[in-house]
Amino acid sequence: MELFESEKKSNPGAPLAGRMRPKTLEEFMGQAHLIGEGKFLNRVIKRGELPSLILWGPPGTGKTTLARIIAEASKAEFVEFSAVLSGVKEIREVVKEAQDNLRRGKKTVLFVDEIHRFNKAQQDAFLHSVEDGTITLIGATTENPSFEVNAPLLSRCKVLVLEALLTDSIKEILRRATEDRERGLGKTPAKIDEGVVDFIAEGSQGDARSALNALETAYMITGPDTDGVRHITMEVATEAMQRKALLYDKAGEEHYNVISAFIKSMRGSDPDAALYWLARMVEAGEDPLFIARRMVIFASEDIGNADPRALNVALAVKDAVHFVGMPEGWIPLAQGVTYLAMAPKSNASYMAYLEVLADIKKNGALPVPLHIRNAPTSLMKDLGYGKGYKYPHSYRGALVEQDYLPDKLKGRSFYKPSDRGYEKEISERLKDRKKK
Asked: Which domain holds residue 221?
């Protein structure tokens, strides 16, 4: 039996989110950049075409729904495949069935949810079938496919990025659910207080499934009054909503997005934004020592000698977090973040090292000048090791004109201190040294 034949009849016992799943493009909310008039998916669906796709986006944004709509529009058989529960054997069975369908003139859409969980052997098993058109692959993932899907498979699919739904879109989805008498909650009399729908929509963080689940839960935990009407208050909505897990995967792309925002906020001297991204990581369960390590790196890379104390502060935060542990570890983290964000900034030391590294790669290992070589043996002294070396402490101010770079790099200047914070003083001292 074809899946879509059974899908057309809503299962009254299914969760609300399943019952309210859009059946057509007209019912679908959001993703206007993909399904709007003249956009890629709009054209594909209307023409009944079947390109292999990777749908990448947050939970509850319509990845599975779009796959179903595409398959039905092209009159294809829709096969849902689990990357977690199935292996190479099952893939071969799907391919064989798809070959049989093709001989009967029917196309097959293989939908793989969480395709990022496919291992290399699984991906390789249907690679040829995707390439020769036996099956059309539509994969859904919340993870960056460039990290999780192997290159040969990725090159045979078009990647489409789905966005978290806007609050207004989710409010419309909730409105439909409360009014739909066939698939939704329209047959259940209810009074919904002002602000409840807004609260659920905003709290769902762009996830329609989460919003519908919360709405359904609110109905379930509210008993009807004497008139048979359920009163959905803000208190009920809060209980139903509970706390949605923050969108943050310590092993995935969002991990890198948030830590990037955290570092860039400190670099931009914005303590408010830096604290926000810090809290996002801490509340999502990020390892606090990972955050502290990034702060130590930042203190040297982005603050450097403009405020040498910054490195000590970052190290102290690391030690404090390690000593105190969580949950109180956020307190020293917050103190350290605000200090680093407001410290004067200089990447002069960091950039100087990169410039030196470029010269080393270009010129190789240049010989150490004889006059600054150590001469522990008579032979070395006879060869001129250490000859002509001027001991700085024997001169006024411990400064003496002397070359320390290899001959080929004489006169090169790598470290260019800024005029910010303590580094301004270093800059003046460097100028004095060069006058000698």
From this structure: 167-241
